[in-house]
Design brief:
By secondary structure, the protein is α/β, with parallel strands linked by helices. The protein contains five helices and eight strands; from the N terminus they run αβαββαβαβββαβ.
Length: 162
């Protein structure tokens, strides 16, 4: 069975970055039996704490995409984050904006595999977990990694986002 193009783009990006999982093995996208559109659903399916799920949230920061990789246990403080980033308006992006900038749909947005690199913030709370799980380009795809690897492969900035 041929892989979905988004899953392949994510795996190609992980391979190009020599990304690793929590055990040091190559990070590999896995397909789940069903779509997991929320951190809680992903955590339940994977048998992990919801905080170990790295949500990929795309925001519209004054018209520019901002990818925030946040712990599934957190909500992004958009007011505080906008102030720290010196942006006038920070809001959750609509589905069209997300698709345009990531090539992926909400519920399956991965940290990598986008048409162009996105400015990325990585929730410092993710560092509390030896292994975390991120979306793999579609709602039923995920991959294991670490906070340090997410920072490295995305070029992200560690940030307290909650």
């Amino acid at each position: 069975m041929q892989s979905h193009p988004n899953v392949q783009a994510v795996q190609d990006a992980l391979d190009a970055a020599n990304a690793r999982n929590g055990s040091g093995a190559p990070a590999t996208v896995r397909l789940l039996p069903d779509a997991v559109h929320t951190a809680a659903a992903a955590a339940e399916t994977l048998g992990v704490d919801v905080g170990a799920i790295a949500n990929s949230l795309v925001f519209d920061a004054d018209g520019t995409p901002l990818l925030v990789l946040t712990s599934g246990a957190h909500r992004v403080d958009t007011t505080g984050l906008a102030s720290r980033l010196a942006v006038t308006r920070l809001r959750r992006a609509d589905p069209q904006f997300v698709k345009e900038h990531t090539g992926q749909v909400i519920g399956g947005v991965a940290p990598v595999g986008h048409p162009q690199p996105l400015r990325t913030l990585v929730d410092t709370a993710l560092a509390a977990y030896a292994e975390i799980w991120a979306a793999g380009g579609i709602p039923q795809a995920v991959f294991p990694t670490t906070c340090a690897e997410l920072l490295r492969v995305t070029g992200g900035t560690p940030t307290d986002v909650a």
